């Protein structure tokens, strides 16, 4: 009997190919299940030069109040002056802090263009002197930190919305209205159209309350931005709390509202520092169905116009202009003339061209909270956002030779300051990497002993050797996987601090599908690094990436930890 028939041969060949493929491991171009990712990670870690050398707490914690986000603020020169007048001896110059969506370039440069034209127009004051303005590009929340801390106070402030003006007044700074609206704008949730259609089919009006309810019920996946830095994120947080308070603004801080917010936040996988980071995550194929954004930004993103729709919420973002403190009367006159110049028909038409002054109208049904309450809401968010699901995080620090000197000193100082911004409800560990990987702080709850241990480890860091970043990532992720197995309720996160590309060990391609399969977000902070490499790393699972330098790494790391921890 002949057993070598074509059919039998085909079956035998297929079995042989299957065996060979399975021996080679899973196809790295295909998604891995969680179980496959765990198995592949274990294999990769076995190949890493890895050691455990836990430090013991030796550093005494500093006496006094812990560092705040304002303590990490960089020199004001880190925020560019986008309009600098060529002022003469007789000119009167007023400096304005302006939010970034109107003081940048292109469609984000409306106020920049207005200010340049104003300075060129040679407007004269009543006494005959020339009126000039200086415009500094700075995010609304960061500007507020400078002003409220008195680290730098300009003559005037034009944030995205009145929320920051009320907070500024609550900080004790005198504010004088110059214009309540330079250019109209709205905050909104950008929602995938197929999700919007499904929600409409289920019945009811498609508004922010429906989206909040749908998030809690896990019918959509929502993301928003850091309310300490982003006007839209702050507006959204207030709207969520006011919704849970049944429209009673005075009850936003009530225990039952806080509890409802904790339930909502437990269903939110991603809080970005900026809207642009959240947008990039969505565009790179992230899992978010909805995220917050200003109408002006949405209007300038044609790639979102076909697959998404804009659902407005909260207070309007009308870009008010207010004088700060007791500035001289002639500077107030400069600001008034500038506001009148900006609201001319020509410039309002330009604002509409750039996405402002949308015909879409919206008025919040909620009473405007006072500035003192807005500041309390920020603190409540910091305290409550992870109560139901605490974070377990590992700091993975590059100690390769290129980090020697000022780079390492600045990173160490930034981490020491940032440790004060980590809530005690979280758990923290630390891993170092150069050409080898060393675990120096095992993951434990961030009580005072663990904080002292972390600070000791930071103080002892030295730099030498090559850069095996993905070896370090593999080890750090394995520690987080073990922590998650022991404490299933934690939310694992990895923070990578590095100054360059990996030049030893595993590569991005070796780890890419494992990271996606594990679904653990990796927040990458580059010290004057290859940001493209770090962007694709943090983009695998919704997370942020930052590029920092000597002057601002403390503030950027502080902002990241304040938002996530």
Question: Any overview of this molecule?
Answer:
By secondary structure, the chain is of the alpha/beta class. The protein has 3 domains: 34-59 and 390-564, von Willebrand factor, type A domain (Rossmann fold, 3-Layer(aba) Sandwich); 76-183 and 318-353, D-Maltodextrin-Binding Protein, domain 2 (3-Layer(aba) Sandwich), CATH 3.40.190.10; 187-315 and 363-384, D-Maltodextrin-Binding Protein, domain 2 (3-Layer(aba) Sandwich), CATH 3.40.190. Helix content is 42%, strand content 17%. It contains 21 helices and 18 strands. Strands 1-15-14-13-16-17-18 form a 7-stranded mixed β-sheet, sandwiched between helices. Helix 20 (531-538) links the parallel strand 17 and strand 18 (545-548). Helix 2 crosses helix 18, helix 2 packs across helix 19 (508-518) and helix 5 crosses helix 15 (371-384). The radius of gyration is 26 Å and the shape is globular. The relative contact order is 0.14.
CATH class of the largest domain: Alpha Beta
Whole-number count of domains: 3
Strand content: 15-25%
First-residue to last-residue Cα separation: 72 Å
- Structural category is alpha/beta
What sort of overall outline do the alpha carbons produce when their principal axes are compared?
globular
Average predicted confidence as pLDDT: 87
Low-confidence stretches: 1-6, 9-24
Can you tell me the CATH topology of the largest domain? Rossmann fold
Count of helix runs: 21
Q: How is the main sheet built? A: 7 strands, mixed
CATH hierarchy: architecture of the largest domain: 3-Layer(aba) Sandwich
């Amino acid at each position: 009997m002949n057993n070598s028939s074509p059919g039998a041969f085909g079956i035998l060949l297929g079995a042989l190919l299957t065996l060979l493929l399975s021996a080679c491991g899973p196809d790295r171009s295909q998604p891995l299940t969680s179980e496959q990712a765990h198995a592949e990670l274990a294999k990769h870690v076995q190949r890493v030069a890895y050691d455990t050398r836990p430090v013991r707490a030796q550093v005494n914690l500093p006496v006094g109040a812990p560092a705040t986000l304002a303590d990490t603020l960089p020199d004001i020169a880190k925020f560019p002056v986008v309009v600098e007048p060529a002022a003469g001896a007789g000119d009167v110059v007023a400096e304005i802090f302006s939010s970034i969506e109107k003081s940048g370039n292109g469609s984000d440069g409306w106020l920049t263009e207005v200010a340049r034209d104003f300075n060129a127009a040679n407007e004269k004051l009543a006494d005959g002197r020339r009126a000039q303005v200086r415009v500094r590009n700075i995010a609304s929340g960061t500007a507020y930190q400078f002003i409220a801390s008195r680290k730098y106070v300009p003559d005037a402030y034009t944030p995205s919305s009145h929320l920051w003006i009320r907070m500024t007044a609550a900080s004790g700074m005198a504010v004088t209205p110059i214009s309540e609206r330079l250019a109209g704008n709205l905050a909104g949730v950008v929602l995938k159209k197929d999700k919007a259609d499904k929600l409409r089919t289920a019945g009811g009006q498609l508004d922010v309350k429906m989206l909040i309810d749908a998030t809690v019920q896990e019918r959509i996946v929502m993301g928003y931005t850091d309310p300490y830095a982003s006007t839209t994120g702050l507006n959204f947080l207030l709207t969520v709390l006011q919704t849970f308070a049944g429209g009673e603004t005075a009850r936003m801080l009530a225990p039952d509202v806080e509890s409802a917010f904790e339930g909502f936040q437990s269903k939110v996988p991603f809080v970005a520092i900026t809207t642009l980071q959240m947008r990039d995550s969505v565009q790179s194929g992230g899992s978010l169905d909805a995220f917050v954004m200003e109408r002006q930004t949405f209007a300038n993103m044609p790639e979102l116009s076909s697959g998404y729709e804009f659902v407005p919420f909260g207070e309007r973002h009308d870009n008010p202009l207010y004088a700060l403190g007791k500035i001289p009367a002639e500077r107030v006159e400069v600001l008034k003339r500038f506001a009148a110049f900006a609201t001319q028909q020509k410039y309002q038409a330009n604002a509409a061209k750039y996405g402002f002054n949308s015909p879409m109208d919206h008025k919040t049904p909620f009473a405007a909270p006072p500035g003192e309450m807005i500041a309390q809401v920020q603190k409540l968010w910091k305290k409550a956002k992870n109560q139901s699901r605490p974070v377990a995080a590992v700091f993975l620090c590059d100690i390769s030779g290129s980090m020697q000197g000022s780079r390492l000193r600045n990173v160490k100082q930034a981490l020491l300051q940032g440790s004060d911004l980590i809530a005690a409800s979280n758990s923290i560990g630390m891993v170092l990497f150069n050409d080898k990987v060393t675990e120096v702080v095992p993951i434990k709850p961030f009580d005072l002993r663990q904080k002292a241990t972390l600070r000791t480890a930071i103080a002892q860091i030295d730099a030498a050797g090559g850069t095996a970043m993905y070896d370090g990532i593999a080890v750090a992720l394995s520690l987080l996987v073990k922590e998650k197995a022991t404490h299933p309720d934690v939310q694992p996160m990895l923070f990578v601090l590095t100054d360059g590309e990996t030049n030893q060990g595993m590569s991005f391609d070796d780890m890419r599908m494992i990271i996606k399969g594990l679904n653990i977000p990796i927040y990458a902070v580059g010290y004057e690094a290859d940001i493209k490499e770090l962007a694709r790393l943090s983009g695998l699972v919704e997370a942020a990436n930052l590029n920092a330098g000597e002057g601002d790494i403390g503030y950027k790391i502080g902002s990241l930890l304040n938002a996530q921890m």
